[in-house]
Structure formats: C-alpha cells, structure tokens
Specification:
- The chain starts with a helix and ends in an 8-residue tail after the last strand.
- The chain has a domain of 75 residues.
- The chain contains three helices and seven strands.
- The strands form two sheets. The protein has a four-stranded antiparallel β-sheet with strand order 6-5-4-7. A three-stranded antiparallel β-sheet has the order 1-2-3, with helices on one face.
- Strand 1 and strand 2 form a beta hairpin.
- The model has no long low-confidence stretch (mean pLDDT 86).
- The protein is α+β, with helices and mostly antiparallel strands and 128 residues long.
- It is globular, with a radius of gyration of 16 Å.
Length: 128
C-alpha cells in the first residue's frame, strides 16, 4: 500500500515539476527513449514482439501506458506523458497487426487497468 502511494506521488510530482524529462524519438526504422537528453535505449521496430496497453491509476487520473516486449524478452514501458508518445503510436499504427481500436479497449471504464494486447508478432515457423 505504501509503495503504491509513493509511486502515485512520484508520478504526480514528475508531471507537475518535470523531475526528469523522458522522451521518445521516432527515427526511421527504430525509436529511442532518452532521459534529460541522453539516449537510454534504441529499439528497432523489427525487435518488437508484443505490445500491451493498460492504464495506471494515479489517484485522480489514469495514465495510459504501453508495455513493449522485445524479441530478447526484455520489457520497455512508455506512457502518454512522455514527449513523442503520439509519434510512436502513429508509427505503430502503420503496421496492419497493430489494433487501431486499442484506445477504446483501454480507456473505459475509468480507473481500471484494462490491459489489452494490441500488437503481437506472429511466431517464426520452426525449421525442420
């Protein structure tokens, strides 16, 4: 319970006081996540295996988040408060496997997690 409260306070303070500026940069065949101008990770789109969308309850508001699972098994989380989030969504929607109605599935009802898989790469066929 205390951890959840601290998390909510941190997210609120981050939005109000811009404690750190985390951005998403869409660049050709990849996207990058940077914090305070330093690139943390660059991810080629071909490495994205699955995208799940969900909401995080911050008390008075919900925060829409994407959990991006990479081919390596690593998960990267981005959210709508990050500069460049809408550019990333626009890039993802160019792939026919991306659920273009994801927002309707995730937004309602309010203050519920509403986790939904909105992109899944087809498994590679096993070679014989």
């Amino acid at each position: 319970m205390l951890t959840k409260l601290i998390s909510k306070l941190y997210h609120f303070a981050s939005r109000v006081f811009k404690l750190s500026q985390t951005c998403i940069q869409v660049k050709g065949e990849m996207f990058a996540i940077s914090q305070n101008g330093n690139i943390i990770v660059s991810i080629p789109y071909v490495e994205v295996k699955k995208i799940s969308a969900f909401k995080r309850d911050l008390g008075t508001v919900d925060l829409i988040c994407f959990e991006i699972t990479l081919e390596s098994g690593q998960n990267v989380e981005v959210n709508e408060e990050m500069e460049g989030f809408s550019d990333l969504v626009s890039q993802f929607t160019q792939d026919s496997r991306f659920d273009k109605n994801w927002r309707k599935r995730v937004v309602n009802p309010a203050f519920a997690g509403n986790r939904a898989t909105i992109f899944r790469k087809k498994p590679k066929p096993e070679s014989s």
